[in-house]
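Researcher: We plan to redesign the surface later, but first we want a full-length starting point. Tokens attached.
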């Protein structure tokens, strides 16, 4: 079981000392992005799988906004050496729109030729139920809700095979059904044989491996598979993973070890190296995690250098924040670090703060926190965020 703390890789210099990372590391970045809303997402969601369904107008807007968000966080299109997409149009179109948006006015800094398509990044195949609405009464009556839920959320649950008479049948290499485990196997194979070599080894790309960024635009289950692989998620936690449409998720890798280097933060499925770009989805997740007694609050507090007595000085708190930002890069700020920075501003260098007081202030800061999502006039609230 992965503990809900910042990670065992964080080295301390002693009681009430901040995080310290020695030496300059060679870092490569992978950005994972689920496609924008498709015509089969939403309230009448279907088991889409390998059905080649296009984006909605909203989905295209989401893709453009995701590109704008990445650009404002320092990831311009010129920095993306290679982009990977699945063979399905909703993935490829999202990739094109995001890259074009990341380029801004410099449209000559990206090209569709930079996108590499791979069927192994396709969504999980849903077998005989593919194409049906998830709440279809006949489907529920025939299989039962517990069985359908087991197929959707478990690692090894698998719907019946699709036969050649099925409306959405496709010949090989399309599978006839898949469990999430089957999907993960091919996605991880794609990572090992195709994406990772491009990230760590390939020559003649615009940037060297130590300063390389790759964008992977895929689907809920294929991205979930990669995240589970990167974060060593236990089997019983995989069902807790959720990947919203068009929210960029960053992983940073040590090019020497090819392992994620960002310290692990608590998540619903255990510790994660992922850094979600500031947006409505992770804002609400952090709001929930910062409830009284929240494990994320304590993980951050301890990671910033608090001693065994759960106290830390304002000076060490500020240094700890700086070290964590150094680990993530100034441009990769997230909500919880924003909260910690706000608290730092209110504490004198020689003042000591206890964990309980830190948590109280975190709640106070977060209650007044707003997120301006791309359009300065568009302040995201809980009501609008629920639509994502």
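Model: Full-length starting sequence:
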């Amino acid at each position: 079981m992965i503990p809900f703390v910042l990670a065992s890789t964080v080295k301390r210099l002693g009681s009430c000392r901040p995080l310290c990372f020695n030496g300059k590391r060679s870092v490569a970045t992978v950005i994972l992005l689920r496609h924008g809303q498709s015509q089969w997402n939403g309230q009448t969601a279907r088991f889409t799988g390998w059905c080649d369904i296009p984006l909605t107008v909203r989905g295209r807007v989401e893709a453009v906004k995701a590109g704008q968000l990445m650009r404002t966080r320092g990831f311009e299109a010129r920095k993306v050496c290679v982009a990977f997409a699945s063979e399905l149009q909703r993935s490829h179109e999202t990739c094109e729109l995001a890259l074009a948006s990341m380029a801004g006015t410099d449209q000559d800094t990206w090209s569709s030729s930079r996108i590499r398509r791979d069927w192994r990044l396709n969504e999980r195949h849903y077998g005989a139920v593919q194409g049906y609405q998830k709440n279809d009464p006949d489907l529920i009556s025939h299989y039962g809700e517990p069985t359908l839920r087991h197929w959707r959320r478990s690692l090894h649950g698998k719907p019946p095979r699709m036969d050649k008479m099925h409306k959405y049948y496709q010949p090989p290499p399309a599978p006839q059904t898949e469990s999430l485990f089957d999907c993960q196997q091919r996605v991880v194979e794609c990572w090992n044989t195709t994406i990772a070599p491009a990230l760590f080894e390939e020559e003649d790309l615009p940037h060297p491996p130590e300063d390389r960024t790759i964008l992977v635009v895929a689907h809920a289950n294929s991205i979930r598979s990669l995240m589970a692989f990167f974060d060593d998620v236990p089997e019983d936690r995989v069902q807790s993973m959720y990947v919203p449409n068009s929210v960029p998720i960053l992983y940073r890798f040590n090019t020497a070890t090819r392992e994620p280097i960002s310290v692990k933060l608590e998540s619903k499925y255990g510790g994660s190296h992922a850094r979600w770009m500031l947006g409505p989805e992770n804002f609400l997740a952090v709001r929930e995690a910062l409830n009284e007694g929240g494990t994320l609050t304590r993980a951050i507090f301890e990671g910033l250098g608090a001693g065994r007595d759960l106290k830390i000085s304002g000076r060490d708190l500020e240094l700890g924040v700086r070290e964590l930002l150094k680990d993530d890069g100034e441009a990769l700020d997230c909500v919880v670090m924003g909260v910690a920075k706000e608290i730092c501003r209110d504490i004198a260098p020689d003042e000591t703060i206890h964990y309980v007081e830190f948590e109280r202030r975190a709640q106070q800061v977060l209650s007044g926190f707003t997120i301006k999502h791309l359009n300065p006039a568009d302040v995201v609230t809980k009501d609008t965020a629920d639509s994502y």
